[in-house]
Every structure is written in structure tokens, then in C-alpha cells.
Amino acid sequence: MKIKLDPKPEVLRIEELVQKVKIGDIKLPKFQRPFVWKKTDILKLLDSIYQGYPIGSILLWLTKQHLSSENKIGDLTINQRAEEYPTNYLLDGQQRISSLCGAIYWDGKNKKSIWNIVFNVKTEEFLYPDGEDKIEYFPLNKLIETIDFLDQCKRFEASENRELYLKNATKLLNSIKDYKIASVTIGDMELDEVAPIFERINSTGRQLTMVDLMRAATWSGGFDLSNAIDEVRDSCEGKNFEDIEDSHILRNISACSGLGVHKESIDKLRDKTSDELKIAADKTIAAYKLAVDFLTNELPLKSIKNLPYGLQLTFLVEFFNINPNIDPIIIRKLKNWFWKSSFTKYYSSANTGLITKSLSQIRSFANGEADDLDIDVAIDFNNFVKDTFLLNKATSITFSLLLAENSPKSLLEGTTIDTYRSLANINRLEFHHIFPKAYLKACDISDKRINAHANICMLNLSSNREILDSKPSKYFLEIERRVGADLMSVLNSNYINEDAFNAAIKNDYGKFIEIRSELLIEKMGNLVN
First and final CA of the chain: distance in angstroms? Predict the structure, then answer.
């Protein structure tokens, strides 16, 4: 039976409050943000308490729901209570309570710890000792336990200021132990009902994500969603895919458990047992490894930053979850699907209907029930090659991959470009306007035409700086002089044929773009079969 309590205010002394944390009566749910306060924030809080200034109230949620919670608050390990007892989950006040628990219960081991705080009983100020052990420094972790407090005070006996030191130490003890904090407790509610309350009172205005909610809702003694997500991410680290968003991994854990990847399906994870969730997480790890191997081995992606759309990875992971053993024909079809979904911006504004449809298609294809992956949108080839090149835009990321797919060679040097370097950092200095910007501006060409994809190539930094704003008629002849017999090989690797070369040495931008666009479009057509 649920505990029904209206919002109820009460007053707790700090000593009572930290004791409640210690015994596990107050816990920190894992959907809370990490501890972010700086040392100065902690010292200001302690000084406010010492001076008797208000520090605000805390908000607790009393419930019998067993949620994922932190094992430690500050430097204090929290006792685990029997599940039949209701627990207070801290919704507001984390930074303050963590600071108090950390300072009061510091274990004394790491002297550089953020919790190693002392009170100078001579100057009445809180500070970090920085390795010094002065007689007037009273460690806060010696404050609560009576024996520790008395032992610490004995040190003052050797000082001529012992009366002042003892007076201020006692004042410190009383101010910390007896300081009263207003506590408001709300009754047992569903997690979905608590979420908007948390969002409204959270000082950062941070909304709870689906990952936050499911992290709390799916926790059990045998499964921790945070750990599962971290394990997936760790498995992809060697391939520069460790920055996968939590929400993307959660989608795949849901899919690997037999559910969908949209919010309503993910919410059903709360009904799974810990064993079922662990199995789904293990399957997700294995599938991610295969999907990332496919992207980095069969396609020119060098990191997750090169992925045009997150859903592409989501669906590839589900494919490899179902079908880990694939032949060359399947690989070719998956590559066709990747390029077409990228060129068409198919997942740029994915809605629930499209996501559900795509998930069904990928599952059917993986199970051998469908011969191909259908994308029922035509590619606008002309618009793609004319689109403005911006490195933070999905279409330009796709265009960068199109350049890398052709194993480009440096125009001036003829050496193969390190596309890993260019793509891994998405560095604008590794990309070059073939007809330089300054030259085209002087010719009164619009920015849109100057920055078109069809005017962009990969170029190493040294060559980029050497060319700068040279006329194409000048530096294209220099290319011919330097690379000699390899001229056409170098040009073709950058989607430039002999006709485009001739247009460049005539400074004919319109003709050059027309010819290069045709070459790019031809390659796009080949990639999507």
C-alpha cells in the first residue's frame, strides 16, 4: 500500500540530517546531476552555516519504490536498508548535503581531497590546509563524534590562545550540529509524477531525460543501467566511438530486449527482470562492437563525429544484434542503405512513425524476411552538391565522407591524404576551397556559390596554407608541374577530371563546378547502387 503524504515541512538539525544519510534513510537518486560545486562554493556554504545565514530548504520524496541511488554522498558510504522500509530520495539539496557529508565524514586518506576542510579557530574561517597541520586548524571530520572532538581540543592546551581556540571550536560545534534546515517531504508518487517536480525546483533547470528516469526505474541489486551504458561505451573506445549518447545506448538496450526504440517502448523496460535486462545489455555490447567495426572498416568513418545521423547507428546495432554473421552481399546492401539514408537526410527529422517503420524494416532484413532496405525518398543530387559546406551540418559531414571514400591525394604533393586526421577532428583547416574564397569574392560570386560542396576538397594543412588565395589558373599549373605523370591520378582522387582541370586553368568557375558536380553525382549514384 502506498504511503500517502501531503507535502509536509519539518525542521532537521544538520546532525540529524547527516545521520539520516548515513543510515540510508536519505538517498541520492541516480537521476540527479553529478556533484559540480567548486571548493569556494563549499567554503561559502560552511561559512553561511557558521554565521547563521539561511541556506535554503531541501526536498525529499518518501517512497517504497526501490530506485537506483548513489552508494556514496560526499565521502560518506551509505548503509543499505531493507527494501520493505520507505526511503527518502533527495530531490533538491544535493550540492549542499553532499558538501556537508563530504566534509564531516571525510575518511582522512587523501590529503588533497575536496573534503579535507579545516576551521581556523584563530581567524574563524574555513579553508583547505594545503598540507599544513597548524594547532589552530580544526578538521571538520573531527567534529561530530564526541571523542574526536575532545581529542582535537586537547591540542589547544599547549597554546597561549587555548581559551580563544576552545571557545571558537565549541562555537563551531554548536553552529554545525544545531543548525536547522527546513525539509519538505512529498508522499509516495509514481516516478513520472515526481519528474516534473524535480525539473521545476532543480536550480539548473535541467530536465530529466528518459535515461534519467529509466536509470532509476530499472535499478535492482542485479542490474545498474549506468554501468551497462558505461560498458557499451567502453567497448567502443578503441574505435573513437566512446562518445555515444546515453539515449542512443538506451534505445538499443530496449531493442535488444525485444522492445521498440521510442519513448513508450523504452518505458516498458521497467517491467523487465534484472536478468532480462542484463541479457539485453550484453547483447547490446556485442552488437555495438560489430556495428562500429562495420562503420569503420566498410565505410570511411573515423569516429562517431563522422556519423551523419544517430539513428543510423541505432538501426545498425539492432541489425547486428539479430544477424552477427553477414556475407558480402549483405555488406553491400547495408552500405547502400547507409549512403542513401545520408544523401536523402532520411533521419534528419525522424518521427515515431518513421522510427517504428525503419526498425521493422531493419529487423525483417536482418532475419532474411526482406531482400533489401527500402528508403522511399529520392535523392536530390543537385541540391546536395550545391549545398553550403558547414562542418557541423549532417549533409556536410556526409559530403566529407564522400570525399574520403575516394582516397584523395594532396593536390600539390600527390601524397595520400590522412583522412583519419581530417575526419577524426572534423578540422576546417583540412578542407579547402578549390577556387579560393578571396578570389571568388573579388569576382563578385555569392557566398552560397563560393561555399558549395562542389567547391570543397580535402587538403593537408601545409598545402592549404601554400595555396591560400592563388588563382586556380596559377596553382593548377603548379600542380601539373609538381606531380607530373601522376596528374590525372591526383585529380581524379579529388573528383576532378581533365575537363574540370582545363576549366580551372581558365579560371572558369561555372564550368568547373558543373563538371565536378557531375563527377560527384556519378559517385553518389554508384554508392547507392
Answer: 61
Look up cell 512529498; give the residue: 186
> Do 304 and 243 meet the contact criterion of CB atoms below 8 Å apart?
yes
Give per-residue pLDDT as tens, 300-317. 998 999 999 999 999 999
Full DSSP string of 22-60:
HTTSEE-BTTSPPP---HHHHHHHHHHHHHT-----EEE
pLDDT digits (tens, 9 = 90+) for 264-308: 899 899 889 989 999 999 999 999 999 999 999 999 998 999 999
DSSP 193-242: HHHHHHHHH-TT-PPPPHHHHHHHHT-BTTB-HHHHHHHHHHHTGGGT-T
The residue behind cell 553561511 is 48
| Lookup result for grid cell 594532396 | 410
One domain for residues 173 and 86: yes
Which residue, 70, 60, 84, is CA-closest to 1? 84
Instruction: Match 560570386 to its residue by C-alpha cell.
Output: 445
Please name the residue that has the C-alpha cell 583547416: 429
Note whether residue 105 is domain-resident: yes
Q: How many residues does the chain have?
A: 529
pTM of the model: 0.73
Question: Domain count of the chain?
Answer: 3
Q: Is residue 366 included in any domain, yes or no?
A: yes
